[in-house]
Design goal:
370 residues, alpha/beta, Metallo-beta-lactamase, Chain A, six-stranded mixed beta sheet, globular
């Protein structure tokens, strides 16, 4: 009987404990239900919003006064580091100031693209993540154009209207591989609806009806292929290097040669690591076969200096900084975090190769030396 009473008392104590815990959980939820960061109370979360707003105001001043250039002014570099600080908040994509900044930067690019003609060289705009638009005198090419949906925030994602304005300005879309921060099926369909080619590796949407409408050029090192641009009435020369992200993901490294002879390559998520190093067979020899004006590699690829030497470009514009769909440790910052990621970025920056760093919506006009 005594044991039974003890057991009943224990159950009562456990029940009371559970009720108390549920009460405090309810109170915590009630306090945090209106916060962006559930680990913060309302005051703490409001502070983060105010700090983000203040930092972005300084970022805007700095990058407006000091646009992308080489060599990199220290003041601009500090502005880029402030971007790193803002975007390494786990909930950055949900912060209203970040959303407003992203949308304003992309709209700045949209307006600029719609009013820019290029008579010499190429103008390059960076969009989100590793998305770029490159315009020469005769063509405008898009790479890995996405809405920012991978950041998983409706308020951050670009609207269909904005994306249509960008698509209207482009002649073709190149998709490097099948990851969501590099491809968008709605964007691809809009290109196809305008009879503009979408070029991607076979793995992209391989189980979707759109797959048959995608252009799958041969993934063959150094070989020039013709890509018709029917809206322009011309064909352009393209090389699709058979790259990979590790061993499992096909990754097209696309080299475009414009009718004026300006050549530019975007590398997607190209990376070789561990026992999978076969792509260096062609990476190390690109410059022996083709002149490369502009190279757009992922900032986090492990042997970026070796890769750049293989292409031997006149200009390097890294991409993929601060992808907000990644975990905080994997949002590669402008300061590069080379020790942790085991990169050769410091060697590249110390080399004679011009490296231009850009953030969302910024642009750079490349003019070849006479």
């Amino acid at each position: 009987m005594k044991k039974k009473l003890i057991k009943i008392a224990q159950w009562k104590m456990l029940t009371i404990t559970m009720v108390v815990l549920m009460f405090f959980q309810f109170v915590a939820f009630a306090q945090n239900e209106n916060t962006i960061d559930p680990c913060l109370d309302k005051k703490g979360d409001d502070y983060m919003n105010r700090q983000t707003t203040a930092f972005i105001a300084e970022i805007k001043k700095t990058i407006t006064d000091l646009p992308p250039q080489y060599p990199l002014p220290r003041e601009r570099y500090l502005g880029l580091l402030l971007i790193d600080a803002v975007l390494h908040d786990v909930h950055a994509a949900q912060r209203p100031a970040v959303q407003k900044f992203f949308h304003a930067q992309i709209m700045k690019a949209v307006n600029d693209i719609e009013t820019t003609t290029v008579e010499e060289g190429a103008k390059i705009w960076q969009l989100y993540n590793h998305g770029f638009i490159v315009r020469t005198k005769s063509i405008t090419i898009a790479f890995d154009m996405v809405t920012g949906e991978s950041a998983m925030s409706d308020g951050f994602t670009l609207s269909n209207e904005v994306m249509c304005r960008l698509i209207d300005q482009c002649d073709a879309l190149f998709i490097s591989h099948r990851h969501r921060d590099h491809k968008d099926i709605w964007v691809a369909q809009q290109f196809l609806n305008q009879n503009k080619p979408v070029v991607a590796p076979p793995q992209v949407w391989e189980d979707q009806p759109i797959h048959d409408k995608i252009t799958h050029l041969k993934r063959e090192a150094h070989s020039i292929q013709k890509l018709p641009l029917e809206n322009k009435g011309i064909s352009i020369d393209v090389v699709i290097y058979p790259g990979h992200q590790m061993s499992s993901h096909e990754n097209n490294v696309s080299l475009i040669i414009s009718p004026e002879g300006i050549s530019f390559a975007q590398m997607g998520d190209q990376i070789n690591e561990g026992d999978f190093m076969i792509d260096y067979d062609w990476i190390d020899k690109v410059s022996e076969h083709h002149k490369v004006d502009i190279l757009m590699p992922p900032c986090w690829t492990n042997e970026i200096h070796r890769i750049v030497k293989g292409f031997d470009p006149k200009l390097v514009i890294p991409g993929h900084e601060n992808e907000l769909g990644h975990t905080v440790d994997d949002r590669v910052p402008f300061w590069d975090d080379s020790e942790y990621l085991e990169l050769t970025y410091p060697e590249l920056k110390a080399s004679d190769y011009p490296v231009v760093l850009m953030t969302w919506g910024e642009s750079y006009h490349y003019r070849p030396l006479k």
